[in-house]
Amino acid sequence: VQLQASGGGLVQPGGSLRLSCASSTIDLRVRAVNWYRLAPGKQREFVASTNTRGDPIYTDSVKGRFTISRDNTKNTVYLQMNSLKFEDTAVYYCQVTPYWGQGTLVTVSS
């Protein structure tokens, strides 16, 4: 497995989770890292990305709620998700071309 995504779980609306994307074989410090999600009955959706400088890009639906960041000492990229909504429920994948992580499930439910 080239990429390991973790941190998903069950959370109530308004809650927070932090997803992690780590790799023991890819130097994430020199790669752009992307997060995507796949919700039931929907197409895969881009969520956020960070380039090697740490500049973030977000899809409109998560702006102001999600933050993507890097910890280069841990070779890890995080996706901090706050103010979660029902519609954020999905399997979240980290991606570094051409590799995909295995996905981590986020369920927002009351």
What does this structure look like?
The chain has 110 residues and is mostly beta strands. It is 0% helix and 48% strand. It is built from no helices and eleven strands. The strands form two sheets. Strands 2, 4, 5, 6, 9, 10 and 11 form a seven-stranded mixed β-sheet that branches. The chain has a four-stranded antiparallel β-sheet with strand order 1-3-8-7, with no helix packed on it. The protein is globular.
Salient structural properties:
110 residues, mainly beta, seven-stranded mixed sheet, 11 strands, 0% helix, globular
TL;DR?
By secondary structure, the chain is mainly beta. The protein is built from no helices and 11 strands.
- Average pLDDT for all residues: 96
Query: How would you classify the helix and strand content by structural class?
Result: mainly beta
Q: Percentage of helical residues?
A: under 10%
**Rg, please?**
13 Å
Number of helices: 0
Beta-strand residue fraction = over 45%
**Morphology:** globular
Low-confidence stretches: none
Number of strands: 11
Report, as a whole number of angstroms, the end-to-end distance: 33 Å
Largest β-sheet summary = 7 strands, mixed
Succession of helices and strands: EEEEEEEEEEE
List the helices and strands and how they pair.
Elements (H helix, E strand, L loop, with lengths): L3 E3 L2 E3 L5 E6 L10 E6 L6 E6 L5 E3 L7 E6 L4 E6 L8 E7 L2 E2 L3 E5 L2
Parallel strand pairs: 2-11
Antiparallel strand pairs: 1-3, 3-8, 4-5, 4-9, 5-6, 7-8, 9-10, 9-11
